[in-house]
């Protein structure tokens, strides 16, 4: 969409409005995205053109866009500009990592570590994974990003025999597990709708009480040993989970 068309959709900004100009621009762009006037992966005009079209400074435009990037509605691609964030389709029937999902869609994954330590299983984990009390594990807690936008909170527990150390995991946990011959080959997953609490919402740059998706996963090796237990909280406005379904054998 060109600048002239975008001004027609958003409307002119008003110095006498109670909201600052950058918030007025944010509000208009947010509405255009939410109503699909600006569709996923649409490119926004350059900041200079937006500033001229809306008769504001480039600083005002940049502040408005940075706020929408922080909300996950826009993504900034180095050397290409600002784009409307596309929803991610996650195949619920395929055992892939966050990093693999993002790379396969041409998006740049990144992580912010919240915790990466060696520990022992909790009583609940002992029951869930069928492990004796005191079994050593690694805990990996992190905030996951794609193209600079927060996408998910991941809390993962892995049996310690699978890796030499917690620091062995860089970007992809599954890549590290695979390099040591302990990548899960099957998993049990459960998907639940949740609402983010205040802490989760702050990390994911959304509102407290906003809808999200919780995926609980237990990963197993070929020999049946449970090696991974994870809770992943996904922003409901960025993810769609899909699965291919088949009739049972003998049915037609």
Characterize the structure shown.
28% of the residues lie in helices and 32% in strands. It has 252 residues and is an alpha+beta fold. It contains eight helices and ten strands. The chain folds into two domains: 82 residues, Arc Repressor Mutant, subunit A, CATH 1.10.10; 155 residues, Chorismate lyase, CATH 3.40.1410.10.
List its traits:
252 residues; alpha+beta; Arc Repressor Mutant, subunit A; Chorismate lyase; 2 domains; six-stranded antiparallel β-sheet; two-stranded antiparallel sheet; 8 helices; elongated
Number of domains: 2
Query: How helical, in percent, are the residues?
Result: 25-40%
- Predict the CATH topology of the largest domain: Chorismate lyase
Count of DSSP-assigned helices: 8
Sequence stretches where pLDDT stays below 50 over 5 or more residues: none
Number of DSSP-assigned strands: 10
Tell me what the CATH architecture of the largest domain is.
3-Layer(aba) Sandwich
Strand content: 25-35%
What shape does the CA trace take?
A: elongated
In what order do the strands lie side by side in the largest sheet?
A: 4-5-6-9-8-7
User: Radius of gyration from the CA trace?
Assistant: 22 Å
Write the layout of secondary structure elements.
Layout: H1 3-10, H2 21-34, H3 47-54, H4 58-70, E1 74-77, E2 81-84, E3 88-91, H5 98-104, E4 109-120, H6 123-129, E5 136-146, E6 149-159, H7 173-179, E7 186-195, H8 198-203, E8 211-220, E9 226-235, E10 239-242
Parallel strand pairs: 3-10
Antiparallel strand pairs: 1-2, 4-5, 5-6, 6-9, 7-8, 8-9
Helix pairs in contact: 2-4, 3-4
